[in-house]
Amino acid sequence: MTVATPLRPYSPKSLAAMIGAPLLTIGTLAAVVLAPAVSAQSTTAVNCSLGDSLSTAVAEAEPGTTIEVSSTCGESVHVPRTVHNLVIDGSGNATVQGPDASAPPTGPGSFTFFIEGQGITLQGLTINGGAHNGVHLSGPASATIVGNTITGTGGAIHLDKDSTAQIAGNTITDNLGYGINIQENSYSRIGFTAPTRGLNGNTITDNDGPGIVIKQWSTGWISGNTIADNQGDGVVIDRNSLGEVYDNTIEANTGDGIRVSNGSGLSLTPEGAEAPSQVAGNHTAPATLNGGTGISCTVGGYVSGATGTINGTGGTTYFTEGCVNSLTSASDIPGNGNQASSLFQLSS
């Protein structure tokens, strides 16, 4: 079992500088390189039905430890900065039940997982509860979050303060807020992992907020995911952030398919060596349009690449004055593009 630790990305100081110029790829912008994987050195078994504590096992873990969890653990788990290169593996047989998701957050103990360490892997878990977040990374933290079911949380996954994450193969559904939120100069691959770069998309559906939010100088690759039936936009890129978004199914959200605003950039074309290795055309979904437009751009945003078949009840695109439109038709890049169904008209 291995743990990959992505290094912190570089974020631009002004995406406004890209206006009128080709959009930079995340590969050139973030320059993300993964450190060599660290092999697990020991294994610790945690069975909460026998009185074991996952939190205690985490606090005592040496670098390279794999914690194999079984049964249901009713606790808030803190992974401190002193813990790194740790795997928490539920193998599909473990639930971590955090605090009441509807309660106001009062600190780290309000989250189901509060991660400050580096090279942390969460896999094969069902993650429930957590006021504000089920999984909260506070930086500079780094994690691989793969193959989990995250439901009934305040908001499923949150990154801030220069954190990095690879988020793939998860089911993120029925949460009280967003599916994934990346902010404060953080970076994430969503739908694939390095170094293989093969697609392993997330299913992000039926959440009470947007599917994915990238904001405040953050960057994200979003590829191979199903983002549907969320209350709000499918994908939001806001406040001087950058996203590459392609080969996703984006449908039946109540807002726009993809919303770009406030000096942010969107590329719909895979570019650079760090892009996913198996990008193909979107899978055709039923004609359930998003509630707004397919792609909206306001307040100095920049959009480039192939539109694919993304659409909404308000049409394919909506651009305000000051946004740069470098979109091309889906046929210009065969096999690429996003497909959308329903999202709401952008509100300012």
UniProtKB/TrEMBL annotation:
<dbReference type="InterPro" id="IPR012334">
    <property type="entry name" value="Pectin_lyas_fold"/>
</dbReference>
<dbReference type="InterPro" id="IPR011050">
    <property type="entry name" value="Pectin_lyase_fold/virulence"/>
</dbReference>
<dbReference type="InterPro" id="IPR006633">
    <property type="entry name" value="Carb-bd_sugar_hydrolysis-dom"/>
</dbReference>
<dbReference type="InterPro" id="IPR051550">
    <property type="entry name" value="SCF-Subunits/Alg-Epimerases"/>
</dbReference>
<protein>
    <submittedName>
        <fullName>Parallel beta-helix repeat-containing protein</fullName>
    </submittedName>
</protein>
<dbReference type="InterPro" id="IPR039448">
    <property type="entry name" value="Beta_helix"/>
</dbReference>
<dbReference type="Pfam" id="PF13229">
    <property type="entry name" value="Beta_helix"/>
</dbReference>
<dbReference type="InterPro" id="IPR006626">
    <property type="entry name" value="PbH1"/>
</dbReference>
<feature type="domain" description="Carbohydrate-binding/sugar hydrolysis">
    <location>
        <begin position="144"/>
        <end position="276"/>
    </location>
</feature>
<keyword id="KW-0677">Repeat</keyword>
